[in-house]
Amino acid sequence: MSSYHSSGRLSDNPMAIEAWFMDESREDKRLPHHRSPPEFVSLDYLAELGVLYWHLNPKDYENDEELQKIREDRGYNYMDLLDLCPEKVQNYEEKLKNFYTEHIHGDEEIRYCLEGSGYFDVRDKNDRWIRIWINAGDLIVLPAGIYHRFTLNTSNYIKLMRLFVGEPVWRAFNRPQEEHPARKEYIKSLVEKVGVALEAH
C-alpha cells in the first residue's frame, strides 16, 4: 500500500492516486477545489466507499497482463476507447454538463485513463464531495449506486478506456435515486461495512 503523510496526503509515489474533500466554491468546476487547508483522502477511505483503484502501464495497455487479469477476474468483457476533448466530441459542452450532473448507475463504472487527466467526484457516507484526480495509468472502479460526477480539468483532454460487464449500458439516473435498487444495495453495503481495501500497484 502507498505510504501517507500524517495529513492524509499521498506521498510522492507517482503510482498513487490523489483524492481530497472539495470546497463549496462555485468557481470553474475544472479547478482542483481544495479546501483550505487541503484535506486529503486515503486509498483506504476510498475503498471503504467501494471505490477500487489500480495503477497500470498506459503505454502498453494492449499487451498488459495485469489489465487482462483484472478484466478476467471481474468479468469486464467489453471495452472501448474515448477521446474526450472539444475537437473530438460532438456537443462537447452539453456532454460535459451531463457528466457533471450528480447521478448513479445500475452497474459499476470502470474507467482507465490512458492520456490526459480529469476528476471523478464521489459522495462519502456523510454526503461530502471527494474529488479523485485521475491521470495516465489510473484505473478506477466506482460501485453501482454511488452518487458521482465527472469533469475534465483545465487541460480539457482525457483519453479513457471504458470497461463493462456484458453489453455497455450508458444510462445515468440523476439524483435523487434513493429508491433505485442499485442505490439501496449500495447503502446496504456501506452499513455492513463490506469495503475491502485493495493495494495500489
TrEMBL record:
Its EC number is 1.13.11.54, 1.13.11.53. It is a peripheral membrane protein. Binds either 1 Fe or Ni cation per monomer. Iron-binding promotes an acireductone dioxygenase reaction producing 2-keto-4-methylthiobutyrate, while nickel-binding promotes an acireductone dioxygenase reaction producing 3-(methylsulfanyl)propanoate. It catalyses: 1,2-dihydroxy-5-(methylsulfanyl)pent-1-en-3-one + O2 = 3-(methylsulfanyl)propanoate + CO + formate + 2 H(+); 1,2-dihydroxy-5-(methylsulfanyl)pent-1-en-3-one + O2 = 4-methylsulfanyl-2-oxobutanoate + formate + 2 H(+). GO terms for biological process: L-methionine salvage from methylthioadenosine. Pfam families: ARD (PF03079). SUPFAM superfamilies: RmlC-like cupins. Its cofactor is Fe(2+); Ni(2+). One of its GO terms (molecular function) is acireductone dioxygenase [iron(II)-requiring] activity. Catalyzes 2 different reactions between oxygen and the acireductone 1,2-dihydroxy-3-keto-5-methylthiopentene (DHK-MTPene) depending upon the metal bound in the active site. Fe-containing acireductone dioxygenase (Fe-ARD) produces formate and 2-keto-4-methylthiobutyrate (KMTB), the alpha-ketoacid precursor of methionine in the methionine recycle pathway. Ni-containing acireductone dioxygenase (Ni-ARD) produces methylthiopropionate, carbon monoxide and formate, and does not lie on the methionine recycle pathway. Belongs to the acireductone dioxygenase (ARD) family. This is Acireductone dioxygenase. It comes from Ilex paraguariensis (yerba mate).
